[in-house]
Design goal:
With 130 residues, the protein is mainly α. The chain has four helices and six strands, in the order ββββαααββα. Strands 1-2 form a two-stranded antiparallel ribbon. Strands 3-4 form a two-stranded antiparallel ribbon. The protein is elongated and about 65 Å long.
Length: 130
């Protein structure tokens, strides 16, 4: 049911209250607290955590290994690979490559595993996908 109010220059129309999880939401917005209590939202958080925490840990170990090698393994990092390029330079460039690879992996993961779950939650909440 919509009601019109004539205060101000334009008539304001209040959208219907959306119900999700058995409780009505504030006019014009979903009930975020009810959404957070659903199994679909718990699954979304679990999926995110299962990707983000291991990937973050892996990258931090890789980065800290590079920093420690740079600080304490001078002879190893200074070994020439070809021309003026040494192991330290290659490992430093590999940091950038690994960052791009992690970004691409997350993008693919989000597209295949996160976005469909978000669409499901939005559909249950009665929110249009944009």
């Amino acid at each position: 049911m919509t009601t019109a109010s004539t205060t101000g220059r334009h008539a304001a129309v209040e959208p219907e209250q959306q119900v999700f999880g058995g409780r009505p939401a504030a006019p014009g917005r979903p009930d975020f607290e009810a959404i957070q209590e659903t199994p679909e939202f718990a699954e979304l958080r679990r999926r995110l955590r299962r990707f983000i925490f291991p990937m973050t840990g892996l990258f931090l170990v890789w980065y800290l290994t590079y920093v420690l090698l740079s600080a304490y393994a001078h002879a190893f990092m200074a070994q020439q690979v070809f021309g003026l390029v040494n192991v330290g330079l290659l490992l430093g460039l590999a940091q950038f490559v690994s960052t791009v690879l992690i970004t691409l992996a997350y993008n693919r993961f989000a597209r295949k595993r996160i976005d469909p779950q978000v669409a499901l939650i939005r559909a249950h909440a009665g929110v249009e996908n944009k």
